[in-house]
UniProtKB/TrEMBL annotation:
Tree of life domain: Eukaryota
The protein, known as: Uncharacterized protein
Record bears the keyword GTP-binding: yes
Xref: PROSITE patterns: RAB, RAS
Coiled-coil features, chain-numbered ranges: none
Any one GO MF annotation of this record: GTPase activity
Record-linked PANTHER family: RAS-RELATED PROTEIN RAB (PTHR47977)
Entry keywords, A to Z: GTP-binding, Nucleotide-binding
Length: 210
């Protein structure tokens, strides 16, 4: 068992069909479950995954908010999050429109209140999904990297289908959170304990999140 467990919220955003749910499912199943049939997320789906920090006896419990990409839900998405910590934005390398939408999703995320009353997440990452479809790719790595740089995000390319870049993306976010906690003066920001315990308890009461 880990000595210290830090409980955090991670928001996943992007256009419909970019593969957000597939990425989350591959992460929580450790590459064993790729959804072959597309099923649109309505509202927000919650998932829980423990991420062990390499070379330590600590871990980060990630409560993942897989958010639907329909305009219908845009105005209410942030009400589900309740001060999250980490941000993962996703686009499809076969869809230039989905990359253009990243700025809008980032703007929506920045309009929310983040953990500890902050205006920004502890860490944010832009993931270019579906790189396995090389013959249909329309967005180059340089374009994605430039967008990430403009928004102050870390950039990763990958494929949910091939389980490439998936673990790397979520692990990077967890490690950034862990590093931030260790840099803080008292070791733990208040939100990591009191704020997220209630959210974690409610997620653990749902068998689908275990």
């Amino acid at each position: 068992m880990p000595v210290n467990i830090f409980r955090v919220k991670t928001v996943v955003l992007g256009d419909p069909g970019v593969g957000k749910t597939a990425l989350v499912q591959m992460f929580i199943s450790e590459g064993r479950e790729f959804a072959k049939n597309y099923s649109m997320t309505l509202g927000v789906d919650l998932h829980l995954k423990r991420c062990h920090i390499p070379n330590t006896s600590d871990a980060v419990d990630m409560l993942i908010y897989d958010c639907g990409g329909l305009d219908l839900y845009l105005d209410c998405l942030s009400q589900f999050w309740d001060q999250p910590d980490l941000l993962l934005l996703v686009y499809d390398v076969c869809s230039p429109t989905s990359l253009q939408s990243v700025a809008d999703w980032h703007r929506l995320a920045m309009s929310a209140e983040w953990a500890g009353g902050g205006a920004r997440p502890v860490a944010g990452l832009l993931l270019a999904n579906k790189t396995d479809l090389a013959g249909r790719r329309l967005v180059g790595a340089d374009e994605g990297s430039q967008m990430a740089g403009q928004l102050g995000l870390h950039y990763v390319e990958g494929s949910a289908k091939e389980n490439q870049g998936v673990q790397e993306a979520f692990t990077w976010l967890a490690q950034q959170l862990y590093s931030e906690v260790n840099r803080s003066q008292d070791g733990v920001r208040p939100s990591y304990n009191s704020l997220h315990k209630s959210a974690l308890r409610s997620s653990l009461s749902n068998p689908s999140l275990k």
